[in-house]
Design brief:
The chain has 173 residues and is of the alpha+beta class. Helices cover 29% and strands 32% of the residues.
Length: 173
C-alpha cells in the first residue's frame, strides 16, 4: 500500500536569507562574482526544499538563473525562496535575489537575480524519497505552480530529444 503524504501550503516552504557582500566575494570587475550568488541561491533553495519535504533534499538541476543587475561590495543581498511545485520525489524551487545598496540607505531593494532549481528529497541512504504535494495559496502561487509545470515539461522534452538524437547518431556523445 502506497503511503499518501499530506500536502503542504506553498507559504510553509518560504525562506529568506540575507548576506552582506564583502571583498572576498568580488570578481576581477569589482562586482560580486556570479558563482558567489549562485551558491547563495542554492543555499536558500535547499533550505526551502528541506522545509517543504521535511528532510534532506539535494540539488538535481538548475533550470535557469538570470542576473539582472550587478551586486557590489557592501550590498545587503536578500534571497527569497519557495517551493513552486512538487512531484513524487522532486520539487521546483523559485528564488529571487534583491540588493539593498550600501550607499543608498532606505532605498527599496532592487531585483538582482532570479532562478529556478530542481531538488530531490532523499533518505538517509541517499535514495529518492516521496515529498508532499504543494498546495498553492494565493493567485501568485497558482501562477508559479502552472509555470513550474511548463518548465518541467520543457526539461523532460529537451532530455528526450537529446537522447533520441544520440540514439540516431548510434550513441555518439
Amino acid at each position: 500500500m502506497e503511503e499518501q503524504l499530506s500536502g503542504r501550503p506553498t507559504a510553509q516552504s518560504r525562506v529568506t536569507l540575507s548576506k552582506i557582500m564583502t571583498a572576498v566575494d568580488v570578481n576581477l570587475y569589482g562586482t560580486v562574482h556570479g558563482g558567489v550568488l549562485m551558491k547563495f541561491v542554492d543555499d536558500v533553495a535547499g533550505a526551502s526544499a528541506a522545509r517543504h519535504s521535511g528532510g534532506t533534499a539535494v540539488t538535481a538541476a538548475i533550470d535557469e538563473i538570470v542576473f539582472l543587475e550587478p551586486v557590489r561590495v557592501g550590498d545587503l543581498v536578500h534571497a527569497y525562496a519557495q517551493v513552486n511545485w512538487s512531484g513524487t520525489t522532486s520539487m521546483e524551487v523559485g528564488v529571487k535575489l534583491a540588493a539593498e545598496r550600501w550607499d543608498a540607505v532606505g532605498a527599496t531593494p532592487i531585483p538582482v537575480a532570479t532562478a529556478y532549481l530542481v531538488f530531490v528529497g532523499v533518505d538517509v541512504a541517499g535514495n529518492p524519497r516521496k515529498v508532499p504535494p504543494v498546495l498553492p495559496g494565493d493567485p501568485g502561487d497558482h501562477r508559479r505552480f502552472k509555470e513550474a509545470l511548463i518548465r518541467r515539461d520543457h526539461r523532460l522534452a529537451r532530455r528526450a530529444a537529446i537522447q533520441q538524437a544520440r540514439a540516431a547518431d548510434h550513441g555518439e556523445p
